[in-house]
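Customer ticket, subject: "Can you confirm the structure for Ankyrin repeat protein?"

Message body: Hello, I'm evaluating your service for our small team and ran a test protein. I'd like someone to confirm that this is what the system normally returns, since I don't have a reference to compare against.
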Amino acid sequence: MAGLVENVDREGRLSREQEHLQTFQCPRSNDSDLSRSQYPLPVGSTDAEKTDTTDPSSRDSQASPESVRDEDEDASFREQQISFRKSEVADKLSHGEWDAARFHLDILMEDLDVNIHDSPDLQILLAMTYNSKARWQEAFDLLKDFVHQSASEPELSARAFYAKAVALYKLRDYEASHMNSRRGLAVVEKLLTGATQQKYRSEFGDLAARTLEDLGNTGQADKAKYYRSLIHESHTEDPILLVTTVSQSSVPPTVEESEASKASLAADMQKYRLSFGHDGKVMVGRQKDIFYALKAALDSENLPLMTVICSNEWCATQSLRESPIYFDLDPPMPQYAWRATTLLHVVAGSRSKYSAPMAQLLLDKGANPQTTLFEGITPLHICARQTNAEVASVLIKNGANIEARSITGKPPIHFAAWKASWNADVRILKMLILAGANINAKNSGGYTALHWCMFDGRSSAPIEVLLQRPEIDKYVRAGNHKTPWDIFWEHEDEFLEKGEEKRVQILYTLKRYGITR
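Agent reply: Thanks for trying us out. I re-ran your input and got the following:
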Protein backbone atom coordinates (compact mmCIF):
# COMPACT_ATOMS: atom_id res chain seq x y z
CA MET A 1 0.00 0.00 0.00
CA ALA A 2 2.97 2.32 0.47
CA GLY A 3 3.40 2.55 -3.29
CA LEU A 4 -0.27 3.37 -3.57
CA VAL A 5 0.14 6.26 -1.15
CA GLU A 6 3.13 7.67 -2.97
CA ASN A 7 1.71 7.35 -6.45
CA VAL A 8 -1.89 8.43 -5.99
CA ASP A 9 -1.69 12.01 -7.33
CA ARG A 10 0.37 11.13 -10.30
CA GLU A 11 -0.41 10.31 -13.90
CA GLY A 12 2.06 7.44 -13.51
CA ARG A 13 3.64 7.64 -16.93
CA LEU A 14 7.18 8.19 -18.14
CA SER A 15 7.72 10.21 -21.27
CA ARG A 16 7.06 8.29 -24.45
CA GLU A 17 10.76 8.38 -25.29
CA GLN A 18 11.66 6.80 -21.92
CA GLU A 19 8.93 4.20 -22.18
CA HIS A 20 10.08 3.43 -25.69
CA LEU A 21 13.58 2.71 -24.47
CA GLN A 22 12.38 0.59 -21.55
CA THR A 23 9.59 -1.58 -22.81
CA PHE A 24 8.81 -1.34 -26.48
CA GLN A 25 9.74 -4.12 -28.75
CA CYS A 26 8.22 -2.61 -31.85
CA PRO A 27 10.27 0.34 -33.25
CA ARG A 28 8.76 3.78 -33.41
CA SER A 29 10.01 7.26 -34.32
CA ASN A 30 10.09 10.18 -31.88
CA ASP A 31 7.70 12.36 -33.82
CA SER A 32 4.06 11.65 -34.54
CA ASP A 33 4.70 10.48 -38.12
CA LEU A 34 5.57 6.86 -38.68
CA SER A 35 9.07 7.37 -39.96
CA ARG A 36 10.92 4.54 -41.63
CA SER A 37 14.29 6.26 -41.51
CA GLN A 38 15.82 3.48 -39.40
CA TYR A 39 15.03 0.90 -42.05
CA PRO A 40 17.14 0.40 -45.17
CA LEU A 41 15.67 1.70 -48.42
CA PRO A 42 14.67 -0.81 -51.05
CA VAL A 43 17.36 -1.85 -53.44
CA GLY A 44 17.68 0.65 -56.28
CA SER A 45 16.48 3.65 -54.27
CA THR A 46 18.45 6.87 -54.52
CA ASP A 47 19.15 9.66 -52.09
CA ALA A 48 16.82 11.86 -54.06
CA GLU A 49 13.96 9.55 -53.14
CA LYS A 50 14.64 10.28 -49.47
CA THR A 51 13.97 13.98 -49.88
CA ASP A 52 11.49 13.92 -52.73
CA THR A 53 9.75 17.31 -53.05
CA THR A 54 7.80 16.57 -56.20
CA ASP A 55 4.29 17.95 -56.28
CA PRO A 56 2.00 15.17 -55.01
CA SER A 57 -0.42 15.48 -57.92
CA SER A 58 2.31 14.94 -60.47
CA ARG A 59 4.04 12.28 -58.39
CA ASP A 60 0.92 10.11 -58.38
CA SER A 61 0.99 9.85 -62.11
CA GLN A 62 4.73 9.17 -62.15
CA ALA A 63 4.85 6.57 -59.34
CA SER A 64 7.76 4.21 -59.84
CA PRO A 65 7.68 0.58 -58.81
CA GLU A 66 10.09 1.47 -56.00
CA SER A 67 7.81 4.19 -54.57
CA VAL A 68 4.80 1.91 -54.76
CA ARG A 69 6.77 -0.69 -52.85
CA ASP A 70 7.72 1.99 -50.28
CA GLU A 71 4.07 2.88 -49.78
CA ASP A 72 3.16 -0.77 -49.37
CA GLU A 73 5.92 -1.21 -46.79
CA ASP A 74 4.76 1.94 -44.99
CA ALA A 75 1.26 0.55 -44.80
CA SER A 76 2.57 -2.82 -43.67
CA PHE A 77 4.73 -1.18 -41.00
CA ARG A 78 1.76 0.83 -39.70
CA GLU A 79 -0.39 -2.29 -39.53
CA GLN A 80 2.34 -4.04 -37.56
CA GLN A 81 2.46 -1.10 -35.14
CA ILE A 82 -1.31 -1.15 -34.71
CA SER A 83 -1.40 -4.91 -34.15
CA PHE A 84 1.46 -4.70 -31.65
CA ARG A 85 -0.11 -1.86 -29.67
CA LYS A 86 -3.50 -3.59 -29.50
CA SER A 87 -1.96 -6.79 -28.20
CA GLU A 88 -0.01 -4.78 -25.63
CA VAL A 89 -3.16 -3.03 -24.39
CA ALA A 90 -4.96 -6.35 -23.97
CA ASP A 91 -1.96 -7.95 -22.25
CA LYS A 92 -1.41 -5.06 -19.83
CA LEU A 93 -5.10 -4.98 -18.91
CA SER A 94 -5.11 -8.72 -18.20
CA HIS A 95 -2.19 -8.26 -15.78
CA GLY A 96 -3.59 -5.18 -14.03
CA GLU A 97 -0.97 -2.82 -15.48
CA TRP A 98 -3.46 -0.02 -16.07
CA ASP A 99 -1.08 2.87 -16.80
CA ALA A 100 0.92 0.84 -19.31
CA ALA A 101 -2.31 -0.20 -21.05
CA ARG A 102 -3.44 3.41 -21.30
CA PHE A 103 -0.02 4.38 -22.67
CA HIS A 104 -0.26 1.96 -25.59
CA LEU A 105 -3.87 2.97 -26.19
CA ASP A 106 -2.85 6.63 -26.44
CA ILE A 107 -0.28 5.75 -29.08
CA LEU A 108 -2.94 3.93 -31.08
CA MET A 109 -5.37 6.81 -30.95
CA GLU A 110 -2.98 9.77 -31.15
CA ASP A 111 0.23 8.74 -32.90
CA LEU A 112 -1.18 6.05 -35.15
CA ASP A 113 -4.41 8.02 -35.57
CA VAL A 114 -6.67 4.97 -35.48
CA ASN A 115 -10.31 6.06 -35.64
CA ILE A 116 -12.19 4.38 -32.83
CA HIS A 117 -15.43 4.42 -34.83
CA ASP A 118 -13.77 2.43 -37.61
CA SER A 119 -12.16 -0.07 -35.26
CA PRO A 120 -14.54 -2.20 -33.15
CA ASP A 121 -11.67 -3.95 -31.36
CA LEU A 122 -10.18 -0.59 -30.37
CA GLN A 123 -13.60 0.46 -29.13
CA ILE A 124 -13.66 -2.57 -26.85
CA LEU A 125 -10.10 -1.95 -25.64
CA LEU A 126 -11.01 1.63 -24.77
CA ALA A 127 -14.07 0.41 -22.84
CA MET A 128 -11.87 -2.08 -20.96
CA THR A 129 -9.44 0.73 -20.17
CA TYR A 130 -12.32 2.83 -18.86
CA ASN A 131 -13.26 -0.11 -16.64
CA SER A 132 -9.71 -0.30 -15.31
CA LYS A 133 -9.95 3.37 -14.31
CA ALA A 134 -13.34 2.90 -12.63
CA ARG A 135 -15.02 4.97 -15.36
CA TRP A 136 -17.88 2.48 -15.53
CA GLN A 137 -20.49 4.75 -17.07
CA GLU A 138 -18.18 5.79 -19.90
CA ALA A 139 -17.39 2.15 -20.64
CA PHE A 140 -21.08 1.30 -20.79
CA ASP A 141 -21.93 4.32 -22.96
CA LEU A 142 -19.21 3.33 -25.40
CA LEU A 143 -20.57 -0.20 -25.83
CA LYS A 144 -24.31 0.23 -25.40
CA ASP A 145 -24.85 0.46 -29.19
CA PHE A 146 -22.07 -1.94 -30.15
CA VAL A 147 -22.97 -3.97 -33.24
CA HIS A 148 -22.05 -7.62 -32.71
CA GLN A 149 -20.83 -9.77 -35.60
CA SER A 150 -20.80 -12.99 -33.63
CA ALA A 151 -20.71 -15.32 -36.61
CA SER A 152 -17.73 -13.69 -38.33
CA GLU A 153 -15.90 -12.34 -35.26
CA PRO A 154 -16.96 -14.42 -32.25
CA GLU A 155 -14.03 -13.52 -29.98
CA LEU A 156 -14.54 -9.81 -30.62
CA SER A 157 -18.20 -10.21 -29.75
CA ALA A 158 -17.35 -12.13 -26.58
CA ARG A 159 -14.94 -9.40 -25.47
CA ALA A 160 -17.59 -6.73 -26.06
CA PHE A 161 -20.18 -8.63 -24.02
CA TYR A 162 -17.67 -9.12 -21.21
CA ALA A 163 -16.50 -5.48 -21.08
CA LYS A 164 -20.11 -4.30 -21.02
CA ALA A 165 -21.11 -6.86 -18.38
CA VAL A 166 -18.23 -5.72 -16.14
CA ALA A 167 -19.25 -2.07 -16.48
CA LEU A 168 -22.87 -2.91 -15.62
CA TYR A 169 -21.74 -5.05 -12.68
CA LYS A 170 -19.74 -2.15 -11.26
CA LEU A 171 -22.69 0.18 -11.88
CA ARG A 172 -24.70 -2.26 -9.72
CA ASP A 173 -27.13 -3.14 -12.48
CA TYR A 174 -26.73 -6.82 -11.69
CA GLU A 175 -29.64 -8.04 -13.78
CA ALA A 176 -28.36 -6.36 -16.94
CA SER A 177 -24.84 -7.55 -16.18
CA HIS A 178 -26.07 -11.11 -15.77
CA MET A 179 -27.98 -10.92 -19.06
CA ASN A 180 -24.86 -9.74 -20.94
CA SER A 181 -22.81 -12.48 -19.29
CA ARG A 182 -25.30 -15.09 -20.48
CA ARG A 183 -25.30 -13.70 -24.02
CA GLY A 184 -21.53 -13.65 -24.13
CA LEU A 185 -21.37 -17.18 -22.76
CA ALA A 186 -23.74 -18.34 -25.52
CA VAL A 187 -21.35 -16.94 -28.14
CA VAL A 188 -18.39 -18.61 -26.42
CA GLU A 189 -20.06 -22.03 -26.18
CA LYS A 190 -21.30 -21.99 -29.75
CA LEU A 191 -18.53 -20.34 -31.75
CA LEU A 192 -15.23 -20.56 -29.88
CA THR A 193 -13.00 -23.57 -29.31
CA GLY A 194 -9.92 -24.70 -27.44
CA ALA A 195 -7.99 -22.45 -25.07
CA THR A 196 -9.84 -19.34 -26.22
CA GLN A 197 -13.18 -20.92 -25.33
CA GLN A 198 -11.80 -22.05 -21.97
CA LYS A 199 -10.56 -18.53 -21.16
CA TYR A 200 -13.85 -16.77 -21.90
CA ARG A 201 -15.95 -19.54 -20.38
CA SER A 202 -14.08 -19.02 -17.10
CA GLU A 203 -14.46 -15.23 -17.23
CA PHE A 204 -18.18 -15.31 -17.99
CA GLY A 205 -18.77 -18.12 -15.49
CA ASP A 206 -17.11 -16.11 -12.73
CA LEU A 207 -19.03 -12.93 -13.56
CA ALA A 208 -22.40 -14.68 -13.99
CA ALA A 209 -22.03 -16.39 -10.61
CA ARG A 210 -21.14 -13.07 -8.97
CA THR A 211 -24.21 -11.34 -10.37
CA LEU A 212 -26.50 -14.11 -9.15
CA GLU A 213 -25.00 -13.82 -5.68
CA ASP A 214 -25.41 -10.04 -5.63
CA LEU A 215 -28.98 -10.37 -6.84
CA GLY A 216 -29.64 -12.59 -3.84
CA ASN A 217 -31.15 -15.33 -5.99
CA THR A 218 -30.76 -18.13 -3.47
CA GLY A 219 -33.47 -20.04 -5.32
CA GLN A 220 -31.06 -20.39 -8.22
CA ALA A 221 -28.28 -22.08 -6.28
CA ASP A 222 -28.01 -24.81 -8.91
CA LYS A 223 -27.55 -22.24 -11.64
CA ALA A 224 -24.85 -20.44 -9.66
CA LYS A 225 -23.14 -23.79 -9.10
CA TYR A 226 -23.25 -24.42 -12.86
CA TYR A 227 -21.60 -21.10 -13.62
CA ARG A 228 -18.92 -21.81 -11.03
CA SER A 229 -18.28 -25.18 -12.70
CA LEU A 230 -17.31 -23.33 -15.88
CA ILE A 231 -14.32 -21.75 -14.18
CA HIS A 232 -11.17 -23.64 -15.12
CA GLU A 233 -8.66 -24.45 -12.39
CA SER A 234 -6.03 -22.32 -14.15
CA HIS A 235 -8.31 -19.26 -14.16
CA THR A 236 -7.11 -16.21 -12.24
CA GLU A 237 -9.51 -13.53 -11.10
CA ASP A 238 -9.84 -10.68 -13.57
CA PRO A 239 -8.02 -7.74 -11.91
CA ILE A 240 -10.60 -5.32 -13.35
CA LEU A 241 -13.23 -6.89 -11.07
CA LEU A 242 -11.09 -5.80 -8.12
CA VAL A 243 -10.89 -2.19 -9.27
CA THR A 244 -12.73 0.17 -6.99
CA THR A 245 -11.76 3.62 -8.06
CA VAL A 246 -8.01 3.81 -8.16
CA SER A 247 -5.22 1.63 -9.44
CA GLN A 248 -1.64 1.54 -8.31
CA SER A 249 0.73 2.83 -10.95
CA SER A 250 3.01 0.31 -12.58
CA VAL A 251 5.69 2.99 -13.09
CA PRO A 252 7.96 3.82 -10.13
CA PRO A 253 7.79 7.47 -9.02
CA THR A 254 10.70 9.80 -9.66
CA VAL A 255 12.65 11.03 -6.65
CA GLU A 256 10.98 14.42 -6.96
CA GLU A 257 7.49 12.93 -7.15
CA SER A 258 8.13 10.65 -4.20
CA GLU A 259 9.42 13.48 -2.04
CA ALA A 260 6.49 15.72 -3.02
CA SER A 261 3.98 12.97 -2.12
CA LYS A 262 5.64 12.41 1.24
CA ALA A 263 5.66 16.13 2.00
CA SER A 264 1.99 16.45 1.09
CA LEU A 265 1.08 13.46 3.28
CA ALA A 266 3.10 14.84 6.19
CA ALA A 267 1.29 18.18 5.90
CA ASP A 268 -2.12 16.44 5.86
CA MET A 269 -1.20 14.39 8.93
CA GLN A 270 0.00 17.46 10.78
CA LYS A 271 -3.44 19.07 10.42
CA TYR A 272 -4.82 16.35 12.69
CA ARG A 273 -1.79 16.11 14.98
CA LEU A 274 -0.70 12.81 13.50
CA SER A 275 2.88 11.72 12.85
CA PHE A 276 4.96 8.58 12.41
CA GLY A 277 6.85 7.05 15.30
CA HIS A 278 10.22 5.35 14.93
CA ASP A 279 8.46 1.96 14.80
CA GLY A 280 6.13 3.02 11.97
CA LYS A 281 3.06 3.40 14.16
CA VAL A 282 0.93 6.48 13.82
CA MET A 283 1.41 8.81 16.77
CA VAL A 284 -1.60 10.88 17.79
CA GLY A 285 -2.19 13.82 20.09
CA ARG A 286 -5.61 12.55 21.09
CA GLN A 287 -7.26 9.24 20.30
CA LYS A 288 -10.19 10.92 18.59
CA ASP A 289 -7.83 12.72 16.18
CA ILE A 290 -7.60 9.58 14.06
CA PHE A 291 -11.40 9.54 13.81
CA TYR A 292 -11.45 13.15 12.66
CA ALA A 293 -8.61 12.49 10.23
CA LEU A 294 -10.18 9.40 8.65
CA LYS A 295 -13.60 11.07 8.30
CA ALA A 296 -11.98 14.10 6.64
CA ALA A 297 -9.87 11.89 4.35
CA LEU A 298 -12.93 9.94 3.22
CA ASP A 299 -14.96 13.11 2.67
CA SER A 300 -12.21 14.70 0.58
CA GLU A 301 -11.14 11.48 -1.21
CA ASN A 302 -7.64 11.87 0.28
CA LEU A 303 -6.39 8.37 -0.52
CA PRO A 304 -2.84 8.69 0.89
CA LEU A 305 -4.06 9.86 4.29
CA MET A 306 -6.83 7.29 4.65
CA THR A 307 -4.46 4.54 3.53
CA VAL A 308 -1.88 5.46 6.15
CA ILE A 309 -4.52 5.36 8.87
CA CYS A 310 -6.32 2.19 7.78
CA SER A 311 -3.13 0.23 7.11
CA ASN A 312 -1.86 0.85 10.65
CA GLU A 313 -2.57 -1.99 13.10
CA TRP A 314 -2.81 0.29 16.11
CA CYS A 315 -5.35 2.56 14.40
CA ALA A 316 -7.39 -0.38 13.10
CA THR A 317 -8.03 -1.73 16.60
CA GLN A 318 -8.94 1.52 18.36
CA SER A 319 -12.41 2.08 19.81
CA LEU A 320 -13.84 5.19 21.40
CA ARG A 321 -17.05 5.36 23.42
CA GLU A 322 -17.36 9.14 23.08
CA SER A 323 -16.63 9.20 19.36
CA PRO A 324 -16.81 12.60 17.63
CA ILE A 325 -18.33 11.05 14.49
CA TYR A 326 -22.13 10.77 14.31
CA PHE A 327 -24.66 9.39 11.85
CA ASP A 328 -28.08 11.01 12.03
CA LEU A 329 -31.19 8.84 11.87
CA ASP A 330 -34.46 9.56 10.12
CA PRO A 331 -37.97 8.79 11.36
CA PRO A 332 -39.50 6.39 12.19
CA MET A 333 -36.19 5.25 13.62
CA PRO A 334 -35.05 6.63 17.03
CA GLN A 335 -34.61 10.40 16.95
CA TYR A 336 -30.94 10.62 17.76
CA ALA A 337 -27.59 9.96 16.13
CA TRP A 338 -25.41 6.89 16.20
CA ARG A 339 -21.79 7.17 17.27
CA ALA A 340 -19.02 5.67 15.16
CA THR A 341 -17.08 3.89 17.89
CA THR A 342 -14.39 2.34 15.67
CA LEU A 343 -12.73 3.34 12.40
CA LEU A 344 -14.68 0.50 10.77
CA HIS A 345 -17.86 2.33 11.82
CA VAL A 346 -16.52 5.51 10.22
CA VAL A 347 -15.83 3.72 6.94
CA ALA A 348 -19.21 1.95 7.02
CA GLY A 349 -21.01 5.29 7.16
CA SER A 350 -18.94 6.93 4.44
CA ARG A 351 -20.10 7.70 0.90
CA SER A 352 -16.52 7.67 -0.33
CA LYS A 353 -15.67 5.61 -3.36
CA TYR A 354 -12.76 4.23 -1.32
CA SER A 355 -14.83 3.01 1.64
CA ALA A 356 -14.88 -0.69 0.65
CA PRO A 357 -11.10 -1.10 0.13
CA MET A 358 -10.48 0.84 3.34
CA ALA A 359 -12.83 -1.51 5.21
CA GLN A 360 -10.92 -4.51 3.89
CA LEU A 361 -7.65 -2.87 4.85
CA LEU A 362 -8.86 -2.26 8.41
CA LEU A 363 -10.03 -5.86 8.71
CA ASP A 364 -6.71 -7.12 7.38
CA LYS A 365 -4.99 -5.09 10.09
CA GLY A 366 -7.04 -6.54 12.91
CA ALA A 367 -10.27 -4.53 13.08
CA ASN A 368 -13.12 -6.48 14.70
CA PRO A 369 -16.43 -6.16 12.80
CA GLN A 370 -18.37 -7.09 15.96
CA THR A 371 -16.99 -4.29 18.14
CA THR A 372 -19.68 -1.95 19.43
CA LEU A 373 -19.60 0.56 22.28
CA PHE A 374 -22.81 2.41 21.42
CA GLU A 375 -26.16 0.70 21.93
CA GLY A 376 -25.15 -2.48 20.14
CA ILE A 377 -24.66 -0.74 16.79
CA THR A 378 -22.11 -2.62 14.65
CA PRO A 379 -20.55 -1.45 11.38
CA LEU A 380 -23.00 -3.73 9.55
CA HIS A 381 -25.94 -1.91 11.16
CA ILE A 382 -24.51 1.35 9.84
CA CYS A 383 -24.04 -0.10 6.35
CA ALA A 384 -27.68 -1.20 6.32
CA ARG A 385 -28.84 2.19 7.55
CA GLN A 386 -26.64 4.14 5.11
CA THR A 387 -27.13 1.73 2.15
CA ASN A 388 -23.39 1.14 1.89
CA ALA A 389 -23.62 -2.16 0.01
CA GLU A 390 -19.93 -2.28 -0.93
CA VAL A 391 -18.74 -2.17 2.68
CA ALA A 392 -21.57 -4.49 3.76
CA SER A 393 -20.33 -7.07 1.28
CA VAL A 394 -16.80 -6.79 2.68
CA LEU A 395 -18.04 -7.17 6.26
CA ILE A 396 -20.26 -10.17 5.53
CA LYS A 397 -17.50 -11.95 3.63
CA ASN A 398 -15.18 -11.35 6.60
CA GLY A 399 -17.53 -12.93 9.12
CA ALA A 400 -19.55 -10.00 10.48
CA ASN A 401 -22.42 -11.13 12.71
CA ILE A 402 -25.55 -10.78 10.57
CA GLU A 403 -27.78 -11.30 13.61
CA ALA A 404 -26.13 -8.71 15.86
CA ARG A 405 -28.77 -6.84 17.87
CA SER A 406 -28.96 -3.18 18.73
CA ILE A 407 -30.05 -2.10 22.22
CA THR A 408 -33.67 -2.24 21.00
CA GLY A 409 -33.17 -5.70 19.50
CA LYS A 410 -32.94 -4.73 15.84
CA PRO A 411 -30.67 -6.88 13.60
CA PRO A 412 -29.17 -5.32 10.44
CA ILE A 413 -31.95 -6.80 8.28
CA HIS A 414 -34.49 -4.49 9.94
CA PHE A 415 -32.56 -1.41 8.88
CA ALA A 416 -31.88 -2.83 5.42
CA ALA A 417 -35.58 -3.53 4.82
CA TRP A 418 -36.74 -0.18 6.16
CA LYS A 419 -34.20 1.85 4.18
CA ALA A 420 -35.02 -0.09 1.00
CA SER A 421 -38.67 0.92 1.45
CA TRP A 422 -37.45 4.47 0.92
CA ASN A 423 -34.87 4.09 -1.85
CA ALA A 424 -35.75 0.68 -3.42
CA ASP A 425 -32.12 -0.46 -3.01
CA VAL A 426 -32.43 -4.07 -1.88
CA ARG A 427 -28.80 -5.11 -2.32
CA ILE A 428 -27.97 -5.34 1.38
CA LEU A 429 -31.30 -6.99 2.16
CA LYS A 430 -30.51 -9.68 -0.42
CA MET A 431 -26.95 -10.07 0.86
CA LEU A 432 -28.20 -10.67 4.38
CA ILE A 433 -30.81 -13.19 3.26
CA LEU A 434 -28.23 -14.99 1.13
CA ALA A 435 -25.91 -15.12 4.15
CA GLY A 436 -28.66 -16.77 6.19
CA ALA A 437 -30.22 -13.89 8.14
CA ASN A 438 -33.49 -14.67 9.93
CA ILE A 439 -36.15 -12.69 8.05
CA ASN A 440 -38.69 -13.26 10.83
CA ALA A 441 -36.42 -11.93 13.59
CA LYS A 442 -38.24 -9.60 16.00
CA ASN A 443 -36.96 -6.58 17.86
CA SER A 444 -37.92 -5.82 21.47
CA GLY A 445 -41.29 -4.48 20.25
CA GLY A 446 -42.04 -7.61 18.25
CA TYR A 447 -41.59 -5.94 14.85
CA THR A 448 -40.04 -7.86 11.95
CA ALA A 449 -38.37 -6.69 8.75
CA LEU A 450 -41.73 -6.92 6.98
CA HIS A 451 -43.31 -4.62 9.58
CA TRP A 452 -40.61 -2.01 8.96
CA CYS A 453 -41.37 -1.99 5.23
CA MET A 454 -44.90 -0.73 5.97
CA PHE A 455 -44.18 2.43 7.93
CA ASP A 456 -43.51 5.39 5.67
CA GLY A 457 -41.61 4.15 2.63
CA ARG A 458 -43.17 3.99 -0.81
CA SER A 459 -41.16 1.25 -2.49
CA SER A 460 -42.51 -2.28 -2.73
CA ALA A 461 -39.07 -3.68 -3.64
CA PRO A 462 -38.10 -4.98 -0.17
CA ILE A 463 -41.62 -6.35 0.39
CA GLU A 464 -41.30 -8.31 -2.84
CA VAL A 465 -37.93 -9.71 -1.76
CA LEU A 466 -39.25 -10.78 1.64
CA LEU A 467 -42.53 -12.25 0.44
CA GLN A 468 -40.74 -14.40 -2.12
CA ARG A 469 -39.10 -16.29 0.72
CA PRO A 470 -40.98 -19.50 1.69
CA GLU A 471 -40.12 -19.07 5.38
CA ILE A 472 -41.66 -15.59 5.66
CA ASP A 473 -44.41 -15.15 8.26
CA LYS A 474 -46.82 -12.87 6.39
CA TYR A 475 -49.27 -12.57 9.27
CA VAL A 476 -46.78 -12.15 12.11
CA ARG A 477 -48.01 -10.00 15.00
CA ALA A 478 -45.90 -7.49 16.88
CA GLY A 479 -46.04 -6.94 20.63
CA ASN A 480 -49.03 -4.67 20.10
CA HIS A 481 -50.74 -7.47 18.10
CA LYS A 482 -50.45 -5.55 14.82
CA THR A 483 -49.66 -7.38 11.59
CA PRO A 484 -47.69 -5.82 8.70
CA TRP A 485 -51.07 -5.21 7.00
CA ASP A 486 -52.26 -3.27 10.08
CA ILE A 487 -49.12 -1.13 10.09
CA PHE A 488 -49.54 -0.37 6.39
CA TRP A 489 -53.09 0.92 6.79
CA GLU A 490 -52.29 2.82 9.96
CA HIS A 491 -49.70 4.87 8.11
CA GLU A 492 -51.61 4.91 4.84
CA ASP A 493 -54.44 6.75 6.58
CA GLU A 494 -51.92 9.31 7.81
CA PHE A 495 -50.69 9.83 4.24
CA LEU A 496 -54.22 10.36 2.97
CA GLU A 497 -55.00 12.85 5.74
CA LYS A 498 -51.98 14.87 4.63
CA GLY A 499 -53.21 14.79 1.03
CA GLU A 500 -50.34 12.61 -0.16
CA GLU A 501 -50.61 9.96 -2.86
CA LYS A 502 -51.73 6.43 -2.10
CA ARG A 503 -49.06 3.76 -1.89
CA VAL A 504 -50.71 1.76 -4.64
CA GLN A 505 -47.69 -0.39 -5.53
CA ILE A 506 -47.29 -1.64 -1.98
CA LEU A 507 -51.00 -2.42 -1.69
CA TYR A 508 -50.92 -4.27 -5.02
CA THR A 509 -47.89 -6.32 -3.92
CA LEU A 510 -49.50 -7.29 -0.61
CA LYS A 511 -52.71 -8.42 -2.29
CA ARG A 512 -50.77 -10.35 -4.91
CA TYR A 513 -49.24 -12.41 -2.11
CA GLY A 514 -52.58 -12.94 -0.44
CA ILE A 515 -52.26 -10.36 2.33
CA THR A 516 -55.57 -8.54 2.86
CA ARG A 517 -57.62 -7.20 5.73
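A couple of notes from the result: DSSP finds 26 helices and four strands in the chain. The longest helix spans residues 65-94. Feel free to reply with more questions.
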